[in-house]
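queue> pop job 88
queue> type: inverse folding (structure -> sequence)
queue> payload:
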């Protein structure tokens, strides 16, 4: 396959549909092959920004963190990062946090972080590493999102109450002796 790609490339600079080939490579079932092809194609000028970051999204869907890292090193656009971030939020596997962290570190915009924070807090309360990641990068809750936290705050108070309730209150001396 490598020779075929080289032959296509040698026909003329950008004569081959490099961006489409990058997207195909990023969907490869073998992570090693996806990484190898993606590195070669980006060296030739393929962009991870093609089709709103489709190659980034494909890597996220396959939880291929090595190929994703290689594509993120190509400085994808803010738009591509936004779509990649949205895709990563929908993951429900062990790689979710790592993938989100990679995208956040690549420079996803604060508006995307702000929009994601209520969703993350609904899934898991404040002890969530993902919530800490977003807040650590400047995510804030806007008043429109504050109403989503009422249930979360109530749940925190309930847990706090369960922790305090078993403790015996201090015995207070009610005598007025000097």
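queue> result:
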């Amino acid at each position: 396959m490598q020779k075929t790609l080289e032959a296509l490339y040698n026909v003329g600079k950008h004569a081959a549909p490099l961006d489409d080939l990058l997207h195909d490579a990023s969907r490869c079932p073998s992570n090693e092959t996806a990484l190898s092809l993606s590195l070669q194609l980006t060296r030739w000028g393929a962009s991870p920004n093609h089709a709103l970051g489709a190659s980034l999204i494909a890597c996220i869907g396959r939880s291929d963190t090595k190929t994703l890292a290689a594509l993120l090193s190509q400085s994808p656009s803010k738009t591509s990062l936004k779509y990649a971030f949205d895709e990563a939020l929908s993951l429900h596997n062990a790689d979710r946090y790592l993938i989100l962290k990679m995208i956040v570190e690549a420079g996803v915009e604060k508006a995307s972080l702000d929009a994601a924070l209520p969703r993350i807090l609904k899934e898991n309360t404040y002890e969530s590493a993902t919530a800490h990641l977003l807040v650590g990068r400047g995510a804030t809750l806007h008043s429109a999102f504050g109403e989503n936290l009422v249930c979360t705050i109530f749940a925190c108070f309930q847990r706090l109450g369960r922790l305090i309730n078993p403790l015996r209150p201090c015995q207070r001396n009610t005598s007025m002796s000097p």
